[in-house]
Amino acid sequence: MSNLPTDPHHDGHHDCHHDHIENSCEFQGLTVNSGVKQPPSVNPYMTRRKKRTLPSASALVEGILKGDVTMLSRAVTMVESLSPDHQAVAQEVIEKCLPYSGNSRRIGITGVPGAGKSTSIDVFGLHVLKTPGSKLAVLAIDPSSERTKGSILGDKTRMERLSIHPDAFIRPSPSAGSLGGVARKTRETIVLCEAAGYNNIFVETVGVGQSETAVHSMVDFFLLIQLAGTGDELQGIKRGIMEMADGIVINKADGDNIDRARLAQAQFRSALQLFPPTPSGWKPEVLTYSGYFELGIPEVWDMIDRYFTFARENGYFDIKRHQQSRYWMYETIDEQLRNNFYNDTEVASRLIRCERDVLNNRRSSFTAAKEVLDFYFSAMSQKQRPI
Ligand code: GDP
After folding, report:
1. Which atom belonging to ligand 1 lies closest to the Cα atom of 289?
2. What angle do helix axes 84-97 and 57-65 make, rounded to 10 degrees?
3. Would you say 327 and 217 are in contact if contact means Cβ atoms under 8 Å apart?
4. What's the pTM value of the predicted model, to 2 decimals?
5. C-beta of 226 in contact with ligand 1 (< 6 A)
6. Which atom of ligand 1 is nearest to the CA of 122?
7. Which residues belong to CATH 1.20.5 in the chain?
8. Could you tell me if the CB of 116 is within 6 A of ligand 1?
9. Rounded to the nearest 10 degrees, how much is the dihedral formed by the CA atoms of 130, 132, 133, 137?
10. What are the entry keywords (predicted)?
């Protein structure tokens, strides 16, 4: 900028375009308007805005029990937060909501990307909400969100009609932490949603890996959405996921695809016969439907209704919920222990050294592990505080 010719008439005043430096005789191009003076702040009211105060646990609980969506959302944000202050409030809220939770049908929905989960959840959700007194929360567990720091599963924009329904609450996957951590937050969110009166909970995930196990451990019914016409119908989905399914539904049974969907249905039915009996005694069913054209939706829902009647009558519904509570207790303990151990800076530096020794064959894996653990336990006992 230093070699720009200076305008002798330029007095630093910007109100008139003649005064702009490029409007001097050395510049032959278009005249330049110096524009408007910028205000000191983009939003002058910004400074007046008060910092949002942390709502108390009792205020949140009161709001949640009244079905106040804003308070529910704020409480879920606290559940998802990594801040110890927020976590302390969140845990108190969960504890207080627990007596009001449990009264819902928790349904896990999985399928590979493109299987039609969002289209189907939109339609299934509207179907469920036709029953008077129904409310629906759609939550998600997205393992990829750890990497992308954001989740699209459960995103409102994917469920157009449901997202504007007054009785639906949609929340994308929590994004921070390990899969176990993310799943635990979703499970805690279920408690809050139930306390807020949501008597149907959908938990969505992508049918490609570990996250199904996490979802399975928090739902009563596990629905697997499959596609027909992709050659070998059993490809692309792990056998373990099929074993978890209480219902397999083949989507996009419309137009030219109907016959292929029926063929896939027959293949899945015969594949399921080779599987061991389910712990509930329920025989998983295979149905075809079209989420897009809304065909076969009541039939899918009728199957789910029948499952709930079956599982409630034979007592499996309660058994499974008890097993899940126990599972989450131990999962939480495991997670906290692991975090406490690996977040310790002394432990971390010892781990680096021990790992190097092990890789250089200077010592065995077991003595290296013992050294770090011994250090950790003795440090813990010296601190004389619970882990
Ligand atoms: P997701 O990735 O599992 O959530 O799948 P989407 O719901 O986004 O659907 C993927 C694509 O399949 C979209 O282009 C949908 O319009 C289409 N789709 C979903 N359901 C159906 C269906 O029942 N029939 C047909 N023909 N297409 C569908």
Report:
1. 23
2. 40
3. yes
4. 0.79
5. no
6. 7
7. 53-99
8. yes
9. 0
10. Hydrolase
For ligand 1, whether the C-beta of 291 sits within 6 Å is: yes
Domain with CATH 3.40.50.300 in the chain: 101-315
**Cβ atoms < 10 Å from Cβ of 151:** 20
Count other Cβ atoms within 10 Å, centred on residue 134.
Answer: 16
Closest ligand 1 atom to residue 251 Cα is 23
Q: For residue 89, what is the enclosing H or E element? A: helix 84-97
Query: Which of the following CATH numbers is that of domain 53-99: 1.10.101, 1.20.120, 1.20.5, 2.60.40?
Result: 1.20.5
Let me know: does 172 contact 137? Beta carbons within 8 Å. Answer: no
Q: Is 154 in the pocket of ligand 1 (CB under 6 A)?
A: no
* Each residue's pLDDT tens digit, 104-119: 999 999 988 888 999 9
Token pair belonging to 218: 């928090």
* Closest to 180 measured CA to CA, from 221, 147, 213: 213
Give the pLDDT of the chain (387 residues) as one tens digit per residue.
444 444 444 444 444 444 555 566 555 555 556 666 666 566 666 555 555 677 899 999 999 999 999 999 999 999 988 888 898 999 999 999 999 999 999 999 998 888 899 999 999 999 999 999 999 999 988 876 555 554 556 565 778 899 999 999 999 888 756 777 788 899 999 999 999 999 999 999 876 677 778 888 899 999 999 988 654 545 556 677 888 899 999 999 999 899 999 998 998 898 888 888 889 999 999 999 999 999 999 999 999 999 999 999 999 999 999 999 999 899 889 888 988 899 889 999 999 999 999 999 999 999 999 999 999 999 888 876 554
What CATH homologous superfamily does 101-315 map to?
P-loop containing nucleotide triphosphate hydrolases (3.40.50.300)
